[in-house]
Amino acid sequence: MRCTETDGSLKSFDDVRENMAAFLMQIQDLSRDMAEEKADTYLSGMPAWVE
């Protein structure tokens, strides 16, 4: 899972969030709501998406 495109540009928050949630649902057997909550928590600590 990458946060950037192959050209180095940053993917959108929504794309990264969706990919991360899907990954968490698969490896941790989480519901979509819980996976999205965990993805939001993780992404909120990343400089690219901190408001």
What is this structure's SSE topology?
Layout: H1 13-28, H2 32-43
Describe the structure.
- By secondary structure, this protein is mainly alpha-helical.
- It is 55% helix and 0% strand.
- It is built from two helices and no strands.
- Helix 1 packs across helix 2.
- The longest helix has 16 residues, at 13-28.
- 8% of the residues are buried.
Low-confidence stretches: none
Helix/strand order:
HH
Structural class: mainly alpha
Rg, Cα atoms, Å: 11 Å
Note the gap between the termini: 22 Å
List keywords for this structure.
mainly alpha; 2 helices; 51 residues; 0% strand
Give a nutshell description of this structure.
This protein has 51 residues and is mainly α.
